[in-house]
Fold these 2 entries.
Entry 1:
Amino acid sequence: MTDHNPLATALWEAGRHLATLESALQDWHAAPPANLLELETDPETLRILDQLLFRFSKLQDALGSRLVPATLAALSEPFEDWPMIDRLNRLEKLGFIDVDNWLGWREIRNRLAHEYPEQPETRFAAIESAIAAAADLAAAYRAWRAKLKPSPCSDKSSDE
């Protein structure tokens, strides 16, 4: 990418993660496992899940570290000294994101970091929550990006 505009860079990065995330979601939904045992004994489904969870995390990171500040900067908001929650609250007021959803996605991501080997139902429920959250995050990012489309800063490569 040759453009040094922070908003275009953020859209490009998030767009890359979105494309792979949505592909993994499509693959997952084509043949979802019924339980953890079925998941863990199918290497292809595990590969899809790994890609899905990795891109769910990477998309969250790209939005939080790049798109949040780039969007606020593009809107001439004085955000530099604001904590993240204030940035999110401002973006919510501007119609870009729902803070409760954002915090929920972070909680789901944090829950994935904890393994419960003796609780397969709990582990599988956490995976199912993450998959639903990944789809919601993808939709939220698409809506956010669409709201930015009229801006001359938008980058058509973010659609890839």
Entry 2:
Amino acid sequence: MVTAGRPTGRDVARAAGVSQATVSLVFSENDLTRARVSASTRERVRAVAQQLGYQPQAAGRQLRLGRTGLLHLAVPNILGPFFARVLDGAQSAATESGLAVVVSSGWDRGTLARAHGTGQFDGLLLCSPDDSQLGELPDTVPVVFLDAEPAPAGLPLRRTLELDVAGGMAAAVRHLRELGHVRLGHLRSTDSAYTFRSRQAGFERAARGLEVLEVGVSINGGLEAGRAAGRELLDRTDRPGAVVCDDDVVAAGLYHAAAELGLRIPEDLSVVGIDNILAAALLSPALTTVDLPGERLGRAGVELLAALIAGDAPAAPEPLATALVLRGSTRAAAAAEVRSDRGPQDS
């Protein structure tokens, strides 16, 4: 069965012996309209469509459902390498489903509420939100929170897809413990987002019993903020032998601070980051870091949002696992560091 040019719904209707309206109902993806067509007719129409190579137009289908096919991905900072990974995964999943992703950066709660009060988006993916972005979205807007605090119970159009960032931070600290480090530095984010509160909680639990020196750093300050915070930490007379950074860009800044002070990584200082951005493997030495699977997060977020819009989303998706990636920036603690923790009786 061959048609000239791209097959249309009219071609399918003629070949299947049904009306064009029936073809539209079969491909409407709407339970109420599908119920008006018998199972045998639906099967026949779909078989003919497959033979002809017919693909229903996504735009027309969305209009029939009162949807636009547009999903909104809101991230804190579009310049953050991790968010580029999230966008990559989200776009891939959306394209496969005939949808499109529009990304915004740094929008506050008022801007988000206005954007989603117009009906131009079918749903929202809100990634690593801070307090300034929460609280004003209508309950009728489907929202999936990515790398965020669990959504409140009782809101059917809200879901959360978490990353196990606390577990990743714990793995980083355990690694340094196993290498014999007893005095840890922590370049800790001052951001209010749940993801950074989770990292802090994971760090504190894993570092119990160790000496910890912390310096706050603004993640949005990028490389220079990491360098300044790193310099403050490493300028101390009791500087740590290992440092955990709340993201890889901050870790890169710490590399700069160490070089300025004549410290070698990992001979004088072990360093661990979080995110596993592309640049982590390009540093010298390559950075040991916790991989946060941004592409998987974006892809799974789109799949979950699409299911939520369709009314069949799971109640509580499992958090996505993180993993420690071992590279060249960590090594066993120097003997002097280990002895200093044992006290005079062991010296």
